[in-house]
């Protein structure tokens, strides 16, 4: 298990202020990964805050802690050395769902149809959601400038020892 | 050059060994396992039983040379004694193994209830790969199987037995299934779900004796007087930390080996991790033994960082379980049973087997249960372990407990 160096790697940057809730990202994600327009199977999810008229797209931050990967009992999640993404191997996954409760961000989910789990894998380095977003609410940019810092904060607060990688 | 010795080749021990190597390129790392198998994962056993994976699928790391490449020496050797005065282990063959830093990751063992007949052939725990091989021999389609205990591990085994098409009877002493993971509402739903699938679930029932049946096989006697024939009896009535190794030294032992926030025992160069460790508990402020995979993984990593001199504070044990009972997924976190000063919010849809229960202390979520929900359940961990203050989101969650993800995003991203 090598959590990989994030140097020169890019990550998804999400600016909820620009999101209009059009769901193009969910469509693109499910089409590319599941072969059908099926937002329920999308790995990126747009949350609708009716009261404030606000939308927040949200997905795995490829966090340095990689709680999902470390909790997996059969080594089915590994780091893509090219992109830094934590990627699930369907061949190895037994569907135990431990990763789905270990990820404190709720971004790895069980898929009852396949008996495996779904998470963002950065599409191998060219994320469909970012390409599909018409307002640039989702962009794919250099990793040291990330708008998902607050989500990562939680992870780094829990122990100081491994923060250097974040 | 430091010599690190790890006793136990389960997830806690393996993750500790790998973490040590990340932190210390030169140190000597010895990983001792007590079973004649490559390091494997107990919790993958049910998937071996269902035929979903081969034995090799249970191995914690798949590449044959994984450990050698990392310079981790894996040895099959049972440890019989820890001599903290001499900083040395005594192995079963009598030889000594000195250490500079020691990690005890010896896991837990199944508890054997005081029921006559448990030593008969055909009665098994479901704990080791060897147990699983023997169970697999007996659990043929149509065979009568009695499962003693419907706790978390019992229910996981239940799932894999059902997948083998056996004729299953579940006997649970307490008044519901999953007494330590589910409340009455959830436990009753799971029981009804199982019965709908044709499994007989006897709650508030005890096995009083197991006898050899005349024509071969077993006869399971219940306190109701009823007798159930069985080709296989599986005993899943709780687990207990393997703390014996620590017992005769000056290492403090209670329910398990007691450790501090750095996973260190009362002896400064001895650490403990996983099912054997009794660690600070995030929910209660006390100490607890949590025999679950995510805890073993976290312990192994934090213990190793501290052993290598990278001071790292453990965030505290948080109970978390996810279970699939013949397609019904249930989840529990933290203080789901509430208690003094707690408020609760529930959403129950018994007909569709959907349930969500949140427990609040002031404006934080401290515990949760869910049934029939699979999306974003991990965020409950984030809410609880992150001590997220919900502010105005508390009232919204009380109105609709299923909006956990919105509550998390709303409270942390503002
Ligand atoms: C059937 C089953 C299903 C499970 N399902 C789940 C689940 O769905 N979710 C979940 O969170 N948890 C589950 N668990 C629990 C989970 O497997 C354990 O919490 C986890 O394995 C603990 O890891 P560990 O490293 O602490 O100990 P273990 O995995 O028990 O490893 C202990 C190691 O120590 C060795 N050892 C012990 N004594 C000695 C000695 N004296 N000398 C040398 N070596 C010794 C053993 O051989 C073993 O290698 C399940 C367990 C079982 C049995
Ligand atoms: S799924 Fe969760 S734990 Fe895994 S890498 Fe993504 S954010 Fe981290
Ligand atoms: S569901 Fe699959 S990827 Fe997730 S922890 Fe289990 S085996 Fe690993």
Describe the structure.
Chain A is α+β, with helices and mostly antiparallel strands and 166 residues long. Chain A has one domain: Alpha-Beta Plaits (2-Layer Sandwich). Chain A has five helices and eight strands, in the order βαββαββαββαβα. Chain A has helices spanning 24-34, 67-71, 98-102, 128-132, 149-158; strands spanning 10-14, 45-49, 54-58, 77-79, 86-88, 109-111, 116-118, 138-142. In chain A, the strands form four sheets. Chain A has a two-stranded antiparallel ribbon with strand order 1-8. A two-stranded antiparallel sheet of chain A has the order 2-3. A two-stranded antiparallel sheet of chain A has the order 4-5. The two termini of chain A are 16 Å apart. Mean pLDDT of chain A is 84; it is low at 1-7 and 154-166. Chain B has 414 residues and is an alpha/beta fold. Chain B has helices at residues 11-23, 45-49, 66-69, 129-138, 152-163, 184-196, 244-247, 293-307, 379-385, 393-399, 404-412; strands spanning 3-7, 28-33, 72-76, 79-83, 88-91, 96-98, 101-104, 108-110, 123-125, 144-148, 167-171, 200-202, 207-212, 218-222, 227-230, 232-235, 239-241, 257-258, 270-272, 277-280, 287-288, 320-325, 328-334, 342-349, 354-361, 364-371. In chain B, the strands form seven sheets. Chain B has a five-stranded parallel sheet with strand order 3-2-1-7-19. A five-stranded parallel sheet of chain B has the order 9-16-10-11-12. In chain B, strands 22-23-26-25-24 form a five-stranded antiparallel sheet, sandwiched between helices. In chain B, α1 (11-23) links the parallel β1 and β2. In chain B, α1 (11-23) runs parallel beside α8 and α10 runs antiparallel to α11 (404-412). The longest helix of chain B has 15 residues, at 293-307. The model of chain B has no long low-confidence stretch (mean pLDDT 95). At the A-B interface, β2, α2, α3 and α5 of A face α1, α8, β22, β23 and α9 of B. One iron/sulfur cluster binds next to α3 of chain A.
């Amino acid at each position: 298990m090598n959590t990989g160096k994030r140097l020169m790697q890019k990550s998804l940057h999400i600016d909820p202020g620009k999101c209009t809730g059009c769901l193009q990202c969910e469509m693109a994600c499910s089409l590319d990964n599941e072969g059908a327009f099926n937002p329920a199977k999308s790995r990126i999810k747009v949350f609708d805050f009716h009261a404030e008229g606000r939308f927040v797209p949200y997905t795995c931050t490829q966090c340095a802690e990689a709680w999902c990967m470390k909790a997996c009992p059969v080594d089915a999640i590994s780091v893509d050395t090219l992109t830094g993404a934590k990627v699930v191997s369907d061949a190895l996954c037994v569907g135990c769902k431990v990763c789905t409760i270990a990820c404190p961000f709720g971004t790895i989910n069980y898929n009852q149809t396949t008996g495996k789990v779904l998470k963002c894998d950065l599409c191998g380095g060219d994320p469909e959601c970012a390409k599909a977003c018409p307002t640039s609410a989702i962009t794919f940019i250099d990793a040291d400038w990330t708008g998902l810092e607050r989500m990562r904060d939680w992870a780094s607060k829990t122990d100081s020892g491994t923060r250097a990688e974040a | 050059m430091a010599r690190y010795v790890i006793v136990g080749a389960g997830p806690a021990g393996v993750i500790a060994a790998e973490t040590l190597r990340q932190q210390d390129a030169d140190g000597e790392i010895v990983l001792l396992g007590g079973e004649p198998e490559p390091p494997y994962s107990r919790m993958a056993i049910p998937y071996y039983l269902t035929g979903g994976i081969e034995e090799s699928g249970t191995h914690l790391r798949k590449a044959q040379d994984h450990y050698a490449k990392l310079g981790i020496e894996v040895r099959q050797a049972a440890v019989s004694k820890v001599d903290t005065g001499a900083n040395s282990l005594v192995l079963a063959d009598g030889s000594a193994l000195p250490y500079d830093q020691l990690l005890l990751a010896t896991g837990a063992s199944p508890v054997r209830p005081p029921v006559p007949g448990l030593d008969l052939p055909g009665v098994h725990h479901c704990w080791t790969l060897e147990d699983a091989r023997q169970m697999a021999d007996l659990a043929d389609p149509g065979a009568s199987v009695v499962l003693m205990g419907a706790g978390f591990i019992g229910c996981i085994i239940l799932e894999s037995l059902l997948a083998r098409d056996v004729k299953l009877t579940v006997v649970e002493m307490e008044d519901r299934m999953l007494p330590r993971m589910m409340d009455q509402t959830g436990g009753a739903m799971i029981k009804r779900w199982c019965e709908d699938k044709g499994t007989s679930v006897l709650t508030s029932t005890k096995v009083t004796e197991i006898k050899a049946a005349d024509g071969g096989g077993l006869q399971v006697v219940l306190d109701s007087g009823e007798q159930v024939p069985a080709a296989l009896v599986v005993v899943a009535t709780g687990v207990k930390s393997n703390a014996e190794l620590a017992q005769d030294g000056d290492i403090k032992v209670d329910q398990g080996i007691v450790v501090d926030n750095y996973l260190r025992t009362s002896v400064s160069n001895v650490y403990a991790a996983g099912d054997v460790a009794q660690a600070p508990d995030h929910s209660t402020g006390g100490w607890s033994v949590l025999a679950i995979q995510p805890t073993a993984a976290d312990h192994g990593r934090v213990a190793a960082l501290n052993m290598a001199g990278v001071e790292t504070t453990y965030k505290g044990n948080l109970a978390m379980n996810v279970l699939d009972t013949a397609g019904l997924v249930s989840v529990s976190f933290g203080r789901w049973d509430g208690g003094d000063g707690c408020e609760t919010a529930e959403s129950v849809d018994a007909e569709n087997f959907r349930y969500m229960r949140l427990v609040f202390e002031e404006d934080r979520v401290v515990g949760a249960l869910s049934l029939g929900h699979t999306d974003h359940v991990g965020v409950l961990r984030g809410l609880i372990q992150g001590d997220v203050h919900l502010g105005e989101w508390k009232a919204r969650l009380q109105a609709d407990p299923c909006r956990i993800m919105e509550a998390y995003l709303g409270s942390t991203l503002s």
